[in-house]
Amino acid sequence: MNLAATGMAAVVAIGLVTALLAAVVPARSAVVGVGTAVTGAAAVVAGAAALAGGSFSVVLPEVLPLSGVALTLDPLGGLFVAVTGGVAVAAGIYAMSYVDSLDLRTRGVQVALPLFVVAMALVPAAANVSTLLVCWELMALASLVLVVAEHRRGPRVASAGRWYAVMTHLGFVSVLIGLMVFVAHAPDDSFAALREAGGRLSPAVAGVVFVATLAGFTSKAGIVPLHAWLPRAHPEAPSHVSALMSAAMVNLGVYGVVRVGVDLLGGGTAWWWLLVLALGAVSAVYGILQAAMSSDLKRLLGQSTTENMGLVLVGIGAAGLFASSGEHTLAALALTAALLHVVGHAAFKTLLFLAAGSVLHATGSRDLDALGGLRPVMPVTTAAFGLGALAASALPPGTAFVSEWLLLQALIHGLPAGGVAAAIAMPVAVAAVALTAGLAVATFVKAFGVGFLAKPRSGAAADAHESPFTMLAGMGVAAVVCVVLALWPAGVLPAVQAAAGGAAVSGDVTLRLSQATGALSPLLLTLGLLAAVVVVAGVVRAAVARRARREARLWDCGGGPMSARMEYTATSFAEPLQRVFDDVVQPELDVDVSHHQESRYLVQAVEYRRKVPDRIERRLYEPVLNAITAWGGAGRRLASGSVHRYLGYGFYVVCGALILLAVTR
Amino acid sequence: MSALGVVGGVVQPVLIVAGSPLLVGLMRQVRARLEGRAGAGVAQPWRDLRKLLRKERITPRGTSEVFRFAPLVLVATTLVVAVVVPFVATESAVDPVADLFAVVALLALGAVALALAGLDTGTAFGGMGASREMTILALVEPTLLVAIFALSVRVGSTNLGAIVSSTLHDPARVISPVSLLAAVALIVVIVAETGRIPVDNPSTHLELTMVHEAMVLEYAGPDLALVELASAMRLSVFLGLLANLFAPWGIATEATPLAVLIGVLALVVKVGVLGGLLAAGEVFVAKLRLFRVPELLAGSSLLALLAVAASFFLA
Amino acid sequence: MLSLWRKIRRTGRVAEPPPPLPEGERPERAALLGGSVQIRHVDAGSCNGCEIEIGSAFGPVHDGERYGARLVASPRHADALLVTGVVTRNMAEPLRRTFDAVPAPKLVVAVGDCARNCGVFAGAYGVAGAVRDVVPVDVEIHGCPPRPEAIVEGLRKLTGR
């Protein structure tokens, strides 16, 4: 048994033992926290071992009926197992005290957490369709239990749970249909057999398989238009679960697309990948646009997950497109960029969600319009969120900057390579990525600047306090990973390239593209920036007259002191963007003016409400839901309660069947 | 790291720091003359900076480190750009940082630092400036990157040294439709990023029309000096980039004193002429309403997309 | 646009040749500013006559900017306050706060007879006093309203140019 196999065995064993202990031990939260963290650590070890080349494969025919459980860990799966494990470590440490503070100690919720991690670690290790589907479903159910953990808090949690349950199962059905069609053309349901059959499928069948699985997997990744559950479920879940879902679970949707599209189906044709590219670009822009309008901190982070998964899909789509035109180095570059973004996103989204959880824990609010002024009272959380925001906004020295740079390099070098389709797709993709990057900057400046700086906008924010040590430690783990990824991406690049199946970037301090000119050194850039700050500070210190710094009141135009009500809020910060993208987001504005009783010329109160609804949801989901409701209403009329009618229905159906038989025979 | 790169890395920041206040002075002078005024002289911005450095430092109550460090970060990002971008010499001191995307992102980082400082004050104007600045930044980004895309396609690289050298060796490219379209798009971007008319009015006193000024209303003394110096430096860095991407002639290709001197003079002349043209252009247009700016930027990003299409279909 | 260009060509330079540097002592702290004076204008209760004259002092003909003076938007950016009008009761405290917001070294210029000694409003019920009763004044400029030349002369005492 090699290290990867031992690691996976440890993941399953420790996870199950933790779940068992959670069911019986009274001091559950500490046990579950530690157990989840250790499970995660084991997954990191297993994934790293697989990335280093130590793959394994095991078949346990007795565990499941039909084809049994088959597990294997290749570099691609290993990367996702390792990412999941890393997120679980941070979330596990964080959960130890976070759970104590909220009413999350019920047995079912505590049992579900380690099970969720185990299921997520097993999905990328599945080596046949039935194992994949069982683990997928286990993951969905465990996360569903966790999403509705705080159902006592209000109807929104229950509604989020319903949305999530329905959407995740529709996705599951879609994946199931796709894979069943696939398996029907292969000798058995092992991935090895599918891989062999994948090349021989007729284009029509392969297309059906790809589109069906793509729909299912992208719904898990929160890609437009199947994203509706994500901004509901992620914010309503407890924050460490949000981190697990947003940083680890959504990745598995990406994993599914790569596994089925690139690996099992063997690449397919250009239009598949143009579709993926288009979905990715639309999701990226739409997700960040919604996030830019959002004033709910956790919802904003959830919508940013849609954005980041969109960027990842842009990379994957570009990789598939290049591969289908024979540009394998470029394809490897694009896939490397996409997978590096998966890793980076996992790190900074964990950090951001855990920091948002810390704010929620301290203030009881995640409404940006009621936050602010947290820096003096929560310095560590503020620093953590600031670091995460920098990492998320694709600015140097941030984590996402490196992967977006690689992605842009792939897109730019792809223009001459991919023919006319690429000539149209690449510039549009670059524009989409650029718009996404710009809006992400605005979004995270809003989240950090409004949420943490300036004056507190509510009593709860003013009375906030720093979180307990284990929560800070959980954030610390994620923060360290973010910094390492930002400064020394070469540390994980070999692993990512092993997963991408091709080396397109080399170098240690400086990343260099192979077969294309282009180099970037995040470390030198950061050092240069630090050196420049030191030089400027030194020069200013030397040049400035020796006068003491004076503290003065804010410039309030000489009027009375400024109150927190005069500050810009998240809503007002986003107002110009909302006006610019008026046609896309179609906000709903409500102005109620109530007049004085004596005269209509005297205004008593003006009430202004703004809501930015999800337009895709409104246009796509509401008609479907209304139709289903209408059918249900129509169906109810059939069930009148009269036994005679029911007997009549039976009679008609039998007659109809007989006639049909007679006609077709 | 070549000798030429080191020379460039030392000469360029000194030149940019020393020269950019003079550029601002020159632009104010051009504007003054066109308005029939005499003007305060080209060296006036330096007098302003010298005086600001001698003044008292003020920390407004309730602000955090973000407010205090933002001017430093703003200057530092621009300084790094001044070191690495091939302004005077074709080779860069730190080549792996002289990437167009990295440079653009560094300049954006400076803007973000200032926007956070504006929000950190907790004043209505600070927040308003930050909100507008970020809106414009978000809308400028697509044009900027697509224009970069158009310029880098023909070279096959986004490395600035490579783009400049390639234009130097093949001057015919400059008058190609790709270059012209990308140049127009970039000019609009530069006007927006440096806060000039018609996007923002750097000399406005009316808070409600401010973008950049609104964020810095709380800065005083040396902090204000840094902010003013940084915005002057950003202006010259952007104009220098524009000049060298489309007309790199005169830039030093070898590390001899004469070549470097010619490089310095060529940069001064090019940036000076561009600055003068920009200032003269400002006299003829009025500031746009904030919500008309997106139309301008959308137009320029269309031009950038056309440039990319041209680079593929006319190649 | 072309017609604007023609107009610019036809008009040429309208700024008058600079008069000789004004006599009389300069405030001591003005020397520290080294030829650059940023000015924040405060209307403490003026009839707006002085404002019109200030406007033309910075217009093309007198061009106050050529001597290194510039109007700015925030007292934090300013070196000098240009106060016009009598200080009304409502503006006394804001004027003090504005003075407090200016980083040292700072100067105050009282523009017009109202600012100097309350002018025709002396003794009125809403008047808190002249500018020097509220904040220390360094330079006073006569006139009701003062001529733009006088304002420019007063500013040149600060800039020294």
From TrEMBL, chain A:
Does Zinc appear among the keywords? Answer: no
User: Topologically, how does it sit relative to the membrane?
Assistant: Multi-pass membrane protein
What is the annotated localization of this protein? Answer: Cell membrane; Membrane
Describe the location of the NADH:quinone oxidoreductase/Mrp antiporter transmembrane domain by residue ranges: 126-413
Highest taxon of source: Bacteria
Database matches in PANTHER family: FORMATE HYDROGENLYASE SUBUNIT 3-RELATED, HYDROGENASE-4 COMPONENT F
Name listed for the protein in its UniProt record: NADH:quinone oxidoreductase/Mrp antiporter transmembrane domain-containing protein
Q: Which organism is it from?
A: Lentzea flava
Source taxonomy: Bacteria, Bacillati, Actinomycetota, Actinomycetes, Pseudonocardiales
UniProtKB/TrEMBL annotation, chain C:
Instruction: Give one Pfam family.
Output: Oxidored_q6
Asked whether the keyword Metal-binding is assigned, the reply is yes
Q: Nucleotide-binding as a keyword?
A: no
Question: What are the NADH:ubiquinone oxidoreductase-like 20kDa subunit domain coordinates in residue numbering?
Answer: 47-158
Which Gene3D superfamilies has this protein been placed in? 3.40.50.12280
**Top-rank taxon, per record:** Bacteria
Which UniProt keyword terms apply here?
Answer: 4Fe-4S, Iron, Iron-sulfur, Metal-binding
Output the NCBIfam families linked to this UniProt entry.
PRK06411.1
- Family named by the database record: Belongs to the complex I 20 kDa subunit family.
Task: Please name the PANTHER family in this protein's record.
Answer: FORMATE HYDROGENLYASE SUBUNIT 7-RELATED (PTHR42989:SF1), HYDROGENASE-4 COMPONENT I (PTHR42989)
Task: Please state what the protein is called.
Answer: Oxidoreductase
Could you tell me which species this protein originates from? Lentzea flava
Read off the lineage from the record.
Answer: Bacteria, Bacillati, Actinomycetota, Actinomycetes, Pseudonocardiales
